[in-house]
Amino acid sequence: MGDPKAAVLIVDDEEKLCRFLRKEFERDGYAAHVAHEHDGALAVLARERVDVVLLDIALPGPSGVDILSELKAARPRLPVVMLTGNASVETAVKTMKLGAFDYLAKPYGLPELKALVDRAYAESCRQAAAEKRRKDTARRLEEAVRAAVSGDDAPSPSRSLAELEKAHILKVLAEQGGNRTQAARVLGVDVKTLYNKLKDYQAGP
């Protein structure tokens, strides 16, 4: 089996185009949803899984740019691809600054559009996996610190868990003769995480 396909939300006031795109995406194994304006788009997002949004700029009521701003405030990591029939450098720059994943001018080819959706979804999955690894690493490190300290060394109003974590990491590093690879293995984290922690300690508060 190939990689799972994205669930796509198409937001465009051209109903014929939406029907066509939905049919083409579904035929290739994507889940596809359609909305024609602001409220419809938010309703779909509230009830359906959506991995990538294809958002037309020229919509009745709030524009695609307005919707983009609202979406990024609510779901910062949701990739949004802006679509427009009136491409301009100013609009492209504005949408990218607001957090759009990319910008595609009409008319566009289906292979180009699907490739862009796949790229947006892959990047979103990569970021989600990286965030999960970061949280897992932080959890393991916190557990290691809590297991290593007790009594007078336990967290207290005068000594935070962050301070204990720093002391524990530096202690393990010293015990391993400054070898970061060995220290990372003992701490149960990857070397990059340990390197970033040490870099933060050097920078100070």
Structure characterization notes:
With 205 residues, the chain is α/β, with parallel strands linked by helices. It folds into two domains: 122 residues, Response regulator (Rossmann fold); 55 residues, Homeodomain-like (Arc Repressor Mutant, subunit A, Orthogonal Bundle), CATH 1.10.10.60. Strands 2-1-3-4-5 form a five-stranded parallel sheet, with helices on both faces. 24% of the residues are buried. The model has no long low-confidence stretch (mean pLDDT 85).
Low-confidence stretches: none
Number of strands: 5
Helices and strands, in order, run as EHEHEHEHEHHHH
Q: What is the correct CATH architecture of the largest domain? A: 3-Layer(aba) Sandwich
Largest sheet: 5 strands, parallel
Tell me briefly what this model is.
The protein is α/β, with parallel strands linked by helices and 205 residues long.
Task: Jot down its keywords.
alpha/beta, 5 strands, 205 residues, 58% helix, single chain, Arc Repressor Mutant, subunit A, Rossmann fold, 5-stranded parallel β-sheet, 8 helices, 2 domains
Topology:
Elements (H helix, E strand, L loop, with lengths): L6 E5 L3 H13 L3 E5 L2 H10 L4 E5 L7 H11 L5 E5 L4 H9 L4 E4 L4 H39 L12 H15 L4 H8 L3 H13 L2
Parallel strand pairs: 1-2, 1-3, 3-4, 4-5
Helix pairs in contact: 5-6, 6-7, 7-8
